[in-house]
Design brief:
The protein is α/β, with parallel strands linked by helices. It has one domain (about 10-250): 3-Layer(aba) Sandwich (Rossmann fold). The protein has helices spanning about 20-30, 45-60, 70-85, 110-135, 150-155, 160-180, 200-205, 210-215, 225-235; strands spanning about 10-15, 35-40, 60-65, 90-95, 140-145, 185-190, 245-250. The chain has a seven-stranded parallel beta sheet with strand order 3-2-1-4-5-6-7, sandwiched between helices. Strand 1 (about 10-15), helix 1 and strand 2 (about 35-40) form a beta-alpha-beta unit. Helix 3 runs parallel beside helix 4 and helix 4 packs parallel to helix 6 (about 160-180). Bound molecules: NADP nicotinamide-adenine-dinucleotide phosphate (NAP). NADP nicotinamide-adenine-dinucleotide phosphate (NAP) binds near residues 21, 68, 118, 146 and 200.
């Protein structure tokens, strides 16, 4: 899919967890369409390598700051620094997440807490910290959270992540209502399984479930990172001007497959 060249020229964006997987695909797309982009996550090696790759392979300059979305004060300082460096923040993509497979009867409270802390609390921390910048965004700030179709269906053996994603979706609805007066749109994209990501490699292929999952996807293939990036651009650009508090599902109709 192609958007108008420079569709996001003059915009600034932060993608949490933007060094890898779906986040990196979003960064590439935002950058190629003219946005100035920053990324943050915990591992400096990943961030450095990604920034180098974006420059060499995609011709886009991306800045990075090390940060842990669980640390409310720390991530607030990171976001404040990024907003100052970029001269504002129009688009916040809450993509950082953690997950692992574990039957709920064996799940420790620590395991539960860790995933809720990264996914749900981390999303809250980033939205709260980005608010002063998003309020000043010329065409209305955009918050786009990366959720999962499992937020609705439940997520057997990853109940921690399913519950966190359901919480994120509810948070986006609340923010769309509370922060609409600031011109801020808050939405979420719910991907199905996306090829070449930790999510598919570790949670599906490594469990020997690739064929079973593909058989349930009516379009017959895993999605691509670019499919999610296209949905983010739709919500982040002029195309998303009157869209807030809602979901964009990108799953090849997997929810309805059997
Ligand atoms: P991924 O490559 O593992 O991306 C997760 C990113 O989050 C990593 O870059 C990681 O970087 C960062 N991160 C983890 N904990 C963090 C923390 N405490 N603070 C800051 N950053 C943190 O996985 P992915 O598969 O691309 O997933 C991206 C998003 O899509 C997630 O929200 C996931 O739930 C969602 N999703 C994925 C799929 C799929 O098929 N892959 C399907 C549905 C939804 P560091 O390790 O450097 O911190």
């Amino acid at each position: 899919m192609s958007f108008a060249e420079n569709a996001l020229a003059g915009k600034t964006a932060l993608v949490t967890g933007g060094a890898t997987g779906i986040g990196a695909a979003i960064v590439r797309k935002l950058g190629k369409l003219g946005a100035r982009v920053a990324i943050t996550s915990r591992k400096e090696d990943n961030l450095k390598a990604a920034v180098q790759g974006f420059a060499e392979e995609d011709g886009i300059e991306v800045i990075y700051r090390v940060g842990d979305v669980r640390d409310s004060d720390g991530i607030a300082a990171v976001i404040s620094d990024i907003g100052s460096q970029l001269g504002g923040l129009d688009i916040l993509v809450c993509n950082a997440a953690g997950n692992f497979i574990c039957p709920t009867e064996d799940l420790s409270s620590n395991g539960w807490r860790t995933v809720i802390d990264i996914d749900l609390n981390g999303t809250f921390n980033c939205c709260q910290a980005a608010l002063p910048f998003l309020k000043n965004a010329a065409s209305g700030g955009r918050i786009i959270s990366i959720s999962s179709t499992h937020a609705d269906s439940g997520w057997p053996t990853a109940a921690h992540a399913g519950a966190a994603k359901a919480g994120i979706q509810n948070l986006m609805k609340s923010l769309s209502a509370e922060w609409g007066k600031y011109g801020i749109r808050a939405n979420w994209v719910s991907p199905g399984p996306i090829e070449g990501t930790e999510g598919v490699d570790r949670l599906i292929i490594a469990q020997g479930k690739a064929r079973e999952v593909l058989n349930r996807i009516p379009l017959g293939t895993f999605g691509q990172g670019e499919d999610i990036a296209n949905a983010v651009v739709f919500l982040a650009g002029e195309t998303g001007a009157y869209v807030s508090g809602t979901e964009l599902v990108v799953d090849g109709a997997a929810r309805w497959g059997s």
